[in-house]
Design goal:
single chain; 1 helix
């Protein structure tokens, strides 16, 4: 019984460590990314025509 509980605890700790490592890695990547220029205008994406306008059935 104790062996099974210990296996569950080890698996839980391993999954928690993987999640923590992923969060730390994502935070590091976000901090390394260059910051956008303040006041820069957002541009609309290019129109591809893949989605038909809603006004024409």
């Amino acid at each position: 019984m104790l062996a099974r509980v210990w296996d569950v605890v080890k698996a839980t700790l391993a999954v928690s460590a993987l999640i923590a490592a992923a969060l730390v890695s994502a935070d590091k990547v976000d901090r390394q990314r260059t910051q956008p220029v303040i006041g820069a205008a957002l541009s609309e994406p290019a129109i591809t025509g893949a989605i038909a306008p809603a006004g024409k059935p």
